[in-house]
Design a protein that fits this description.
single chain, alpha+beta, 3-stranded antiparallel sheet, 7-stranded mixed sheet, disordered C terminus
């Protein structure tokens, strides 16, 4: 019996095409692509592969050629995430000869805000931060709010009212922040728990401090607000030694591209050891003030100097100011400032307009009241900051008579035992020049002519010397030349003294007793010291040593012997004369109970205690004095 059955067990149909079909399904039920499609697909894959290869090649070349630039970009971006800051140097101290601080630097702190951090979550950080600042420092809430809003994208804002805060202020604020944030974190309220004081930190700085305020203000000087530049005195003259070099804290990428922190420490300034003695300076200033408040004068000034070395022990005047507040002009009334400013404004107009002149009444046609007042303040500052002993000149008067006698003794035109007649005046050229005693001193020895300050005797002695030799000794004693003192602003007196070629008989006569020429006080002090120390003229100076941070001496200011002025015998004679001037002559007002004033060469046993000897120039008005400490 025949039965019918499927001879294709898998149910696939045969086709006359050898198993193919028109719909692309093969005899086994799988799809296949026609040949032309396969070719297109192969070409597409090849093109894409080639394009990717070309892209890789281009990227490789870009990285190879710009590797350094990209590294810098990466480093910069990563360093911005790392705190990079300046480490300020500490300006060097100024101390007196005994180590007492005259100027020092104290660390203070500037308040820095980070508005970007604060505004990263203003609902959590803004109000707590402002509240903490107001509570700790009393700052204006609205001002802080506006500042943060205006600079919200900045990570560094120095708040002007938060400058130079003390260590105590900083630590008190940091403790407040710690307590406040701790309280927030313990809050059971989820909103309160997220609040924090953020975005406030402190930057270190140094503030210049002068412990004795106005003491030796003209010698010490002061600095700018940032301590980078000195104005006047040692601060200005030795500015390069007092300054240091700022350090830096920053980050860098190591060989493995890890960011490493580096601290380059600051190099602090050197310490200046001055020749000033605080005790002597206090005494000197005390008597300057006493003179000014009793007798009084336009200005009173004094110099204390060691004749053996040229060291300035003290220097001061009646023009004093507070080094911690040098721009205070409260000692001037507004009317005085306006008067000074009006004169200065007229001078400014002349300088700026090719010499055109305006009267003081016309000043306000060209300048505002504020400008004139500002000019007045600048003139006032110049007056109070000016070191009279170094920068101003005066007629020395009778103290210079000692140089006339010294020159005559050195040249051999005068004997120590000679005498002169004083009739009260001397006729020179076409005029009568009077003595301090118009009735005349009568007959005086050389020593007595100095003791009683006789002008006539000095004129007669100078006539023997002649103008050539007199001028020679004026130059030898340093008149007309700068002393070279290590303070800024020393006056140039070269045009204020006579030379032999322009000195007439009257000039010679008046110069012999200290009139008709000018000098500075430091010139007179240096010249006098050479006479009383045996003839050695030392360069006056106010600094002994310069020390590094470790206290080691890096520079020593040894006494500088400039020249010899007189012989030892002349010095001995004049020392004895000056001692007798105080004991018997016109210098009696300089006597001090318990002290020998003047000097006489007299040897004591070394076992005796040091004896203080004070020496004054022989002048009743005592415009200035030299104090001297000697172990006899």
């Amino acid at each position: 019996m025949k039965t019918s059955r499927n001879t294709n067990p898998k149910g696939r149909r045969d086709s006359s095409g050898g198993g193919g079909s028109r719909d692309g399904i093969n005899t086994r039920g799988k799809y296949f692509y026609p040949k032309y499609l396969q070719e297109k697909l192969a070409i597409t894959v090849l093109v894409i592969t080639l394009a990717l290869f070309a892209l890789i090649l281009v990227l490789y070349r870009i990285i190879r050629d710009n590797n350094e630039q990209y590294n810098k970009i990466v480093l910069t971006q990563r360093q911005q995430e790392y705190e990079s800051r300046t480490l300020p140097y500490r300006r060097g101290d100024i101390v007196d000869r005994n180590g007492t601080y005259l100027a020092t630097s104290e660390k203070v702190y500037n308040l820095i805000l980070d508005p970007r951090l604060i505004m990263s979550s203003p609902e959590n950080y803004l109000e707590p931060t402002i509240q903490a600042l107001v509570e700790a420092f009393g700052y204006d809430r609205g001002e802080l709010q506006n500042l943060i809003d205006e600079r919200k994208t900045s990570a560094y804002v120095k708040y002007n009212k938060g400058r130079q805060l003390t260590y105590e202020q900083r630590t008190a604020f940091e403790q407040l922040v710690k307590d406040t944030n701790t309280a927030y974190s313990k809050s059971e309220n989820d909103g309160e728990a997220k609040k924090r004081v953020k975005g406030v930190w402190f930057e270190e700085e140094y503030k210049r401090i002068y412990p004795y305020n106005s003491l030796a203000c003209n010698v010490i000087g002061f600095t700018s607000a940032d301590g980078a530049a000195g104005t006047g005195g040692i601060e200005q003259y030795y500015n390069s030694s007092l300054m240091g070099v700022n350090g830096r804290e920053y980050g860098y990428l190591d060989a493995d591209s890890n960011l490493e922190g580096v601290v380059k420490p600051a190099t602090n300034g050197k310490t200046i050891v001055s020749t000033i003695d605080v005790n002597v300076q206090n005494i000197l200033q005390k008597y300057i003030n006493e003179w000014q408040t009793t007798v009084g004068s336009r200005i009173t000034a004094a110099v204390a100097m060691d004749p053996r070395t040229g060291e300035i022990l003290a220097m001061g005047s009646s023009n004093v100011f507070d080094l911690n507040n040098p721009r205070d002009v409260s000692g001037f009334t507004e009317a005085e400032l306006m008067e000074l400013g009006t004169k200065e404004a007229a001078a400014v107009y002349k300088r700026k307009n090719d010499g055109a002149v305006i009267t003081e009444d016309q000043v306000f046609d060209h300048f505002s009241r504020e400008d004139v007042l500002s000019y007045g303040q600048q003139v006032a500052w110049n007056q109070i900051w000016r070191n009279f002993c170094v920068s101003d000149t005066y007629e020395p008067g009778s103290p210079s008579k000692i140089f006339t006698v010294a020159a005559a003794l050195e040249e051999g035109v005068l004997g120590k035992d000679e005498s002169f007649e004083c009739g009260g005046f001397l006729h020179v050229a076409d005029r009568d020049i009077f003595c301090v005693n118009r009735y005349g001193h009568g007959t005086l020895t050389v020593q007595e002519s100095l003791m009683y300050s006789c002008n006539v005797c000095m004129m007669r002695i100078s006539q023997r010397l002649g103008r050539d030799k007199f001028s020679k000794y004026m130059e030898l004693f340093g008149f007309g030349d700068k002393t070279g003192i290590d303070l800024p602003g020393e006056a140039d007196t070269s045009g204020l003294v006579y030379k032999a070629d322009n000195m007439g008989p009257t000039d010679l006569a008046t110069n012999s007793f200290g009139q008709n020429y000018n000098c500075t006080m430091v010139q007179m002090a240096a010249a006098f010291c050479s006479v009383i120390n045996g003839g050695s003229y030392y360069e006056p100076h106010v600094v002994k040593q310069i020390l590094n941070e470790q206290g080691s001496v890096v520079e020593k200011k040894d006494p500088v012997l400039v020249r010899e002025t007189v012989s030892q015998s002349t010095s001995d004679f004049l020392n004895e004369t000056m001692f007798r001037t105080v004991e018997e002559g016109t210098g009696k007002v300089a006597q001090v109970s318990g002290y020998e004033v003047g000097e006489r060469q007299e040897r004591r046993s070394v076992s005796r205690a040091p004896r203080k000897i004070i020496w004054y120039p022989s002048q009743v008005t005592l415009r200035w004095r030299i104090l001297r400490y000697l172990c006899m």
